[in-house]
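Example complex used in Figure S2.
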Amino acid sequence: MQGPALRAIAPTPFVTLQDGGRRGWRRFGLSGAGAMDRMSLAIANSLVGNRASEAALEFAHAGGEWAVEAASCRIAVAGAGFGTTIDGVAVPPLTSAILRGGQRLRIGGSPQGVWGYLAVAGGFAIPPEFGSRSTHLRTKIGGLHGRTVQAGATLPLVAYRATDEPERVMSAPHVEEGPCRIVLGPQDDFFGEDTIALLLNSEYRVTWQQDRMAYRLDGPHLRHSKGYNIISDGVMPGCIQVPGTGTPILLMRDAGTVGGYPKIATVIEPDLRRVAQTRPGNVVRFQAISVAEAHAIRRGYLARLQLIAEETGPLPNALT
Amino acid sequence: MSSSGRTRINPRFVAVGDTALSVEFDNVIDPQVSAQVRALDLAIAASDIPGIVETVPSFRALLIVYEPEDIGFASLIQQLSQLISLGLNARANSGRSWVVPVAYGFPDEDDFHEVATATRLTSDEIVAIHSSAVFQVYVVGFVPGLPVLGGLPAALHLSRRPDPRPDLPAGRVMIGGMQGIIVPMPMPSGYYSLGQTPLRLYQRGAANPFLFRPGDRIRFQPITPAELDVLAGTSGDRFLATGDG
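Predicted assembly (565 residues):
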């Protein structure tokens, strides 16, 4: 007998399985991958009772159409207010819902952000690779055969039916605003003070050249004061590298592990998801902070991640 | 370097965002500098410094990914400085030695002829020079499992292609600039192909999926194209040089 599965009826082009990412393989050239917005991944998982970094389906701009090949499953969608319906009936935002066999789940677009997550209670019965279920498209490692989910694909599920619990809801997460915080370096000494000031005092527009590997930013060009070739060294997601053209490129989760362009600054981990969710055409501003300040911000961010589980509760009866 | 192989060095510590730190040694590509990077990597692995998530050795820098909840930036630098001040034993991790079989001039004959034209060497000379050099793995990266090899003899230095080739198959032994590489999985590259090795650099699902590590030494040994099939599927360990473990 065939096990329970989620079927992709009409998925959007960039759907991949992602979790909290992999650790320990960067020294062999394998990047960490993982969700572009870990806060939203945690929210979707919390709504269906999964652990925060369980693998979920990540999509860009819209989620497409899905069905379950099982009696039922409990699902939740999070990310950026993606309009979600089951057989045409709207699923309220930040609320779990039951998808029954034969029903259609549709996840539409959102004017607010880029990345969304579809979590299923119990998770996907797909074996991890290098310690994670995250898909790394360039190397075809992890996820569903290392690829984007295509129409007709089935993703095996752990649970045969949704449990008999009340649906869960969570209060809207605090929306952070303000500039994106960066720590200067590791190669800020390749740029003059005027160029650093330019980076900090200008608006940079997110372009359509955005994917899981990198975001190309449009704004004042950053001039190198001593060339743009460095001896290649280790890079991290969040690094803003500046190639010869002077156009900054922000490295994202799937970026390689070593690079040969000077990195003027690095976006701090808690703010990387905010830039990731910035739609093409919208702008980001940068603010330089110290490592100590970054660590204080990180403590607050980790505390908020912890709170997600506590802020998720049963849906009040009046609303069911 | 002193006769004991221990050396005093003053690297630079630079933040890479809020979760990583780069320890930068001299700004050159050089076997001695690479040995310092590896020695620090090894010393960290043997130390009890808390909060270190993973490390990434490259030509002249060691990237250290850490968990700020477990160790502060200042404390990490202080403990690394202490480790370095004890003296890094650059000879402790001299890496493993490999003899990598290559069918030279196969199957990309055109590449091989282009290298001959650019370097003004005969095919036999290219094979003789390339297979007598001792290469060292400086970095594993760019794609997973790809060894970047230092030690390419100057006679074989040549500029990379202006246009990278889109899809090179696994096992190609290539040169470009002042370096060599071996292709672990299909990838684009602007390097020139000298031949094909039957060795599998990446074995999906294996306990040790990547054959080479930074610090390993590699010599190439000419084989015939017919021997490629004979050697295909042979365990990578068979190509470790004798007496090395």
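The first helix of chain A runs from residue 38 to 47. The longest strand of chain A covers residues 5-11.
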